[in-house]
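worker-3 :: picked UTP--glucose-1-phosphate uridylyltransferase
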Amino acid sequence: AQYSAQSEAVSWIRCIPTFISRKDFDGFKEIFHRFLQVKGPAVDWAKINRPPEDSIQPYEKIKTKGLPENIAASLNKLAVVKLNGGLGTSMGCKGPKSLISVRNENTFLDLTVQQIEHLNKTFNADVPLVLMNSFNTDEDTKKILQKYKHHRVNIHTFNQSRYPRINKESLLPIAKNMGMNGENGEAWYPPGHGDIYASFANCGLLDKLLAEGKEYIFVSNIDNLGATVDLFILHHLMSQPADRRCEFIMEVTDKTRADVKGGTLIQYENHLRLLEIAQVPKAHVDEFKSVTKFKIFNTNNLWISLPAIKRLQEQNAMELEIIVNPKTLDGGLNVIQLETAVGAAIKSFNNALGVNVPRSRFLPVKTSSDLLLVMSNLYSLDAGSLTMSKKREFPSTPHVKLGSSFTKVQEFLSRFESIPDMLELDHLTVSGDVTFGKNVSLKGTVIIIANHGDRIDIPAGAMLENKIVSGNLRILDH
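worker-3 :: tokens ->
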């Protein structure tokens, strides 16, 4: 049965109509063939070693080099790539996640454009912004780009591939035809951000940027508000001798209990390699999550050499580990998506390096709990960049856990008349039907639990310090 599924699926790929990207299907065919051939776990646990000391440099060491006199010369060799393929559905929003407002009516995309425009103006440089969209986000993103016409930043877009979802049992594509509508809407998926290398080369942007004298791209997730262009890391890359050019830097940061699922760097068969939780044999998952054995995790802020991408693409030498992502569709059908991760390519590049950066460079907004933090007075906004307020006495961010009543952005916003003062907050847990009045201040550890059927209104001007609030508290207009 396995063999017939294999041959049927492959013949299905061969007879694709030419109006769908041929390169997409070549890419899918390659990953699908590899998937069928792989037997057993992706990694041999016994071969995993900690990376050598010098393969992960502390950020402070890189910073000691200082900055060159001509920063513009380095910036002019850089392009910024933001991964913009995701939707805002997990936060209850339609359309691209990058169009959600996160601070003072600014979206993720607004903040990104402001950051790069500020760089270009400050140093009289030309750093372009490149957005890697997916078929889910491309149309809406392109519409909104009109508003940045008069900003001092050149914006390019390209689309990552579109691959067919596979029936978990038969291993056959579930698509009935090549369309994207109706019952076929769920038949396709963007195959993870590891697709960046092929898509970037296929669309011609790689050659275009090389022709413009660009040497490196800085790649990051668009929802990581800490992923700004770091001039010290850029200078480190530019100042390497030509014969020892570092072709790939992965920014890592110290793991906390909140990051146990994050990918980590390992030494494997004499190469630096990214190990994702999906690749870990079940028996070793707890060991992988350990903060003592694997002390750092990948922020997905990556600095990658453009000539090296060109070389590896031409040689077809980048074999990224396959992540098998199981999904259950609305009708209950079990499918699999074959994906790859952009950081997994680190093993293919010469003189690759991890840089252990401050936690401030990892500020992702995945949930409404994260959104509350970045909207609050814990952070100040300057030229599109968020920095921890100087009024906060210690650098760690509070641990915030909002319940299911806050999951969707619109509902979340309706529960706060204004965002509370959180400068002295350590921990906040909110569960149930809870609302906050204006000018509330939260300090220390605050736990607010409204039981089912109850409601708690935190009154305007309230100051809660090391408090547990439970039961029922209604404030009614008189």
